[in-house]
Amino acid sequence: MKVIVIGAGLGGLGLAHRLIRAGFEVEVHERDSAVEARFQGYRVGLGGHGLAALRGCLEPRLLPLLEAVSGDVAGPGRAVDAQLNLLAETPPRDEGRLFDRHVLRHLLLAGLSGHVRFDRKLDRYEELADGRVRAWFADGSSSTGDVVVGADGMGSTVRRQLVPSVQVYELDVWGAIGRTPLTERFAGLVPGWSTIVNTKQAQLFLGKMPFRRPPHEAAAELAPDVRLPATPSYLRWVMMIPHDHPGDFRSLEGDPEAGLAAVLELMADWHPELRALVRNADKHNSGIGPLRGTDPVRPWPTRAVTLLGDAAHPAPPGGLGANLAFIDGELLCAKLIAVRDGEVGLIAALADYERDMCEYATEALAEAMKTLESFKHLRTTA
Ligand SMILES: Cc1cc2nc3c(=O)[nH]c(=O)nc-3n(C[C@H](O)[C@H](O)[C@H](O)COP(=O)(O)OP(=O)(O)OC[C@H]3O[C@@H](n4cnc5c(N)ncnc54)[C@H](O)[C@@H]3O)c2cc1C
């Protein structure tokens, strides 16, 4: 049975590992020209089932490396005002792990070189009379398989063809994101797992990505065939700005330096250390843009084409998208194994997957939207 996965993001690569180990023929097609082609390096927090699903998709020999390049979630969460006065503290957290998305993507590429093709942007798919599916790429090439899995992220080309009714829309919040090297000076701003700076105009979320070991060094020792980038530990910050803010942020999309300048302008009377944090950000790896979301995705008429991760349930950035992508891969692989073993037909298996996935994703999405609502509430009451 041949599975064609569209998108070599976290979800697509996690699924590919599982399928290959289960003996499927697997091709992953990625539109970017290489893993480094686009900056994707912010931290993601994984915990519970999501973290277990990530660990479960990797070859056991890679697990020590995975642990070595993770960061601990520890200590209390804090809310402070713009002058760093403590407003509130939440109980310590010591569950889950932090990962850098770029490092994790490199790690997930380990052992997949014969399966992943870069520079292969899907244009459309075609359902053939014999039940198989042909994927057509922008360069005019094609590939035919028994199943096509759209793991091609929030703007999914596969979803646009499969479930065109789903609309991704802008939420009424803008986000500016950046990262600053984690020096002793700035570490004090986040003594626990997170610090939120709460003001009337905007909120700034600070979180550390403290690698247990430098990724490239850990790889050289624990899995010398794996190349990981030399990313230093950093402090990730996200500023949430209400849409009704008079600033013209739309013109700043795609211009990181102008985005940083706009953030600093918003912080004009904030504590000098907070301003210094943003001033010292990695200028090429920051950005500003509207947060996007969608209505819950309902099960659709099942075909030999399905969706996984952000392609299936586009969610605003937060603590769940990557978790869900790995859980989807675990569930989908189990269903395809049942097909391979002759226990169930392909379409029935995919229908089961889509029903379960839509159910838990809808719940998770509702939680994410609640968090966003609480942000809006905080902004008006801060
Ligand atoms: C700032 C930020 C912070 C986040 N924090 C967290 C967190 O703490 N915890 C958490 O769980 N989640 C978090 N997320 C969400 C998480 O990163 C995503 O949910 C997750 O990466 C989704 O994985 P995916 O594989 O579905 O999609 P992606 O990682 O987006 O991968 C999709 C891939 O498909 C490729 N592609 C797109 N179109 C095509 C095409 N036509 N043909 C071929 N390839 C294509 C893309 O280039 C990309 O490589 C965060 C997201 C952001 C932006």
TrEMBL record:
Keyword set includes Oxidoreductase: yes
Ranges for domain FAD-binding: 302-364
Segments forming a coiled coil: none
UniProt superkingdom: Bacteria
The entry's keywords: FAD, Flavoprotein, Monooxygenase, Oxidoreductase
Keyword Oxidoreductase found: yes
Name of a matching Pfam family: FAD_binding_3
GO molecular function, one term: monooxygenase activity
Gene3D superfamilies per UniProt: FAD/NAD(P)-binding domain (3.50.50.60)
UniProt-listed SUPFAM superfamilies: FAD/NAD(P)-binding domain
Name of the protein: FAD-binding domain-containing protein
Organism: Kutzneria albida DSM 43870
